[in-house]
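Researcher: Sequence recovery benchmark, item below. Answer with residues only.
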């Protein structure tokens, strides 16, 4: 008797376990949909934006997608988006892939290049550095990091002298010099004029040409000092014209 009750109970439990599947399909088990990442990879490799949009979304948006396949789809779609200048969306895909696997040196470098496209140099350097921590021999990341480090150093040097003229403001005696010291834009113009003139003189073809270039600069300074404060004299315009003249001398 006990054995019959036991068998009946086991059979009932088995029947109940099949009930949801049978009910959902009218008596047949529910089929589990397989996620095919290869369709996404093929579409992105072929640069087929329309097919990739659907194929990759089917993988990325499916909660049952395996982690490895999800990473592959995100990287592939991110690369496709980057090729078509959809930078923000490409960054989003690369960022999600890196959250799933933070050891992807190639993707850190790729995202760094995308940050660079957006003009975010600090984030670009950070990603290039992250790629190098993972793979110190990563050629592209090494080249990118080196170039950006130099660029940031140059920007830092420019910021250090921003708003400062070529001369010491503490020793400024002329009214025009004090006016230049009191205006960041004029101060920057003065410094650029000084640097451009120095370059032109340095790159002169011979000593006589160098002297002629310097004499022209001295004459500009003399006209500037004499003209400042007089009716109709525009200091900013005069300085801009001088800078344009200097930069035109050597083709810059």
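Model:
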């Amino acid at each position: 008797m006990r054995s019959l009750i036991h068998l009946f109970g086991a059979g009932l439990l088995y029947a109940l376990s099949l009930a949801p599947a049978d009910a959902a399909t009218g008596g047949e088990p529910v089929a589990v949909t397989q996620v095919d990442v290869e369709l996404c990879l093929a579409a992105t490799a072929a640069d087929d934006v329309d097919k990739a949009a659907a194929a990759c979304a089917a993988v990325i948006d499916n909660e049952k997608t395996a982690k490895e396949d999800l990473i592959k789809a995100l990287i592939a779609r991110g690369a496709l988006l980057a090729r078509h200048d959809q930078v923000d969306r490409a960054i989003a895909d690369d960022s999600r892939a890196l959250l799933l696997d933070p050891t992807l040196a190639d993707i850190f470098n790729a995202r760094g290049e995308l940050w660079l496209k957006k003009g975010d140099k600090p984030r670009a350097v950070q990603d290039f550095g992250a790629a190098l921590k993972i793979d110190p021999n990563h050629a592209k990341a090494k080249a990118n990091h080196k170039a950006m480090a130099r660029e940031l150093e140059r920007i830092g040097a420019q910021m250090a002298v921003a708003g400062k003229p070529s001369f010491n403001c503490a020793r400024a005696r002329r009214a025009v010099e004090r006016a230049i010291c009191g205006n960041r834009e004029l101060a920057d113009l003065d410094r650029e004029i000084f640097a451009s003139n120095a370059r032109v003189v340095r790159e002169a073809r011979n000593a006589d040409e160098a002297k002629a270039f310097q004499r022209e600069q001295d004459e500009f300074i003399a006209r500037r000092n004499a003209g400042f404060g007089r009716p109709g004299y525009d200091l900013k315009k005069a300085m801009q014209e001088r800078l344009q003249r200097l930069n035109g001398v050597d083709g810059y």
